[in-house]
Design a protein that fits this description.
This protein has 208 residues and is an alpha/beta fold. 25% of the residues lie in helices and 22% in strands. It has helices at 72-82, 84-89, 102-111, 129-133, 171-183, 198-204, and strands at 32-39, 42-49, 59-64, 92-98, 122-124, 146-151, 157-163. A seven-stranded mixed beta sheet has the order 2-1-5-4-3-6-7. The longest helix is centred in the C-terminal third of the chain and has 13 residues, at 171-183. The chain is globular, with a radius of gyration of 18 Å. The N and C termini lie far apart (47 Å).
Length: 208
């Protein structure tokens, strides 16, 4: 499952080839999907659209995992959820997604106490159409790669990260990149909030 993200199958028609992942500058595809939300009295299945965050003038972090009822995936979901308030401070909404159905999401949440009160909506890309249109559908098992997209309030993708199936993400790095993007300035390697940006340093030196 840790093969190349992009695979070219000799002799296959174009329609059978995996398209490359969407990247910086691409628009988030339009979609309407079922998602599991936490509500006051439990959980509810509702529609979620590509404008979920942008309609409110907010950024989106859309993160995908391969399969429900697995081992690496819940560690990431719980970690994203634990940092939800940090994303909210950055005017950002989180959406988690996989190619499992909304009913599998519900069953997983009921089965795993860590997931029972998630604040993050769990999007169900049952048709796999969204994962495919975003270029992150693994060809052999037809599940999504461990992909993360940061999307600005205009619906434009500003950062993409794709991990192999067996490697978990670092939520702090997603927050760091989001901070850097929201400065709209040049930031050095490893820059974090509180440090001067390259733009600020050059301005102070008179090298705008």
């Amino acid at each position: 499952m840790c093969g190349s993200i992009k695979k070219i199958i000799a002799g296959q028609p174009d329609s059978a080839l995996q398209k490359g992942p969407l990247t910086v500058g691409d628009s988030l595809p339009e979609f309407v999907k079922k998602a599991v939300f936490t509500v006051n009295d439990g959980t509810e299945i509702m529609d979620i659209q590509h404008t979920y965050a942008s309609a409110l003038g907010k950024w989106t972090v859309l993160f995908w995992w391969p399969k429900d009822f697995t081992f690496v995936c819940p560690t990431e979901i719980v970690e994203f959820d634990a940092h939800q308030s940090e994303f909210e401070k950055r005017n950002t909404l989180l959406i988690g997604a996989s190619t499992d159905s909304e009913y599998v999401h519900l069953a997983w949440r009921k089965n795993d106490p860590q997931l029972s009160r998630l604040q993050i909506p769990m999007l169900a890309d049952t048709s796999k159409s969204l994962a495919e249109s975003m270029g992150i559908l693994e060809l052999t098992e037809k599940v999504a790669y461990r992909a993360t997209f940061i999307v600005d309030p205009k619906g434009i993708i500003q950062w993409v990260s794709i991990y192999p199936m067996n490697v978990g993400r670092n939520v702090q790095e997603v927050l760091r990149v989001l901070d850097a993007l929201q400065t709209d300035e040049l930031t050095a390697c490893g820059w974090t909030v509180g440090q001067k940006t390259i733009s600020q340093t050059r301005k102070e030196m008179g090298n705008v």
